[in-house]
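Reviewer 2 asked us to include a model.

Predict the structure of this chain.
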Amino acid sequence: MFDFAKFKVVEVLDGVPKEFHVFYKEDSVNGGFKLDSENPVVNASVSAITGQQRALAAARKEASDNKGSRVDLTPLSDYGSTVEEIVETFSAKTEELQKQVASKSKDGESQLNSIKEEMAKQHAKQLEAKDTENKALLAQFHSEKIGGELTMAFTKLGMIPEAIESSVKTLGGSGQLRMEKLADGRIVPRVLDANGEVAFNGAGEHKTVAEFAEDLKSSGKHDYLFKSDKRPGGGANPVDGRRTLNTGEASSVDKISQGLAQMAGK
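Predicted model (structure tokens):
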């Protein structure tokens, strides 16, 4: 008869009957293996098996003591009417208990895996949301950085105030400017050429946003967006440093719109 009380903790499972291995678990603290007494199914199984073993041992002892005389099997009547039936029933119940423990272990493992998977999914969603938020913040920073430098450059070049905000917005999304992270960690604006490559000035240096704005003005394609230094003829009168148009010509708002369209398509 295997004594569970004597073998609550073992270094190896070699001395434990194979059919009882399922009742033990590894001892992560002291090493070896210990009876999984925290598992209610294991506790119930061990108690049942211990009771059966004691009853069976008592029956066998009585049979031995009587040397073939009739044995009182009343205490074991729940398991059968003969020693053979009792042994068979005992073995069947032991096997059933082992299956129950194994099933509970699998169910617990399955539930644990499900919880881990759900936590991993939630974590992935949180990371994705944070990544989206970071990208949006980075894009906003880039837009504000480029917009700030364009606004400063256009103001110095004398662009009419009404056109600055629209021009900055148009050029900011035109693909002619972008932010670039340098090796030292700094993020700086870069001007791009017609092929989408970083543009350089005559000195072989990176073209600045200010130089980009100067090119726009000097091209002559966007004169309507800048204040005029000359007194317009044909009856036109200067107003706040800007020129007004003769009757019959397009309004200043139309001219700004035309200039912005040309600017975006440069």
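The first helix runs from residue 40 to 66. The helical segments are 40-66, 83-156, 161-172, 209-218, 252-264. We have added this to the supplementary material.
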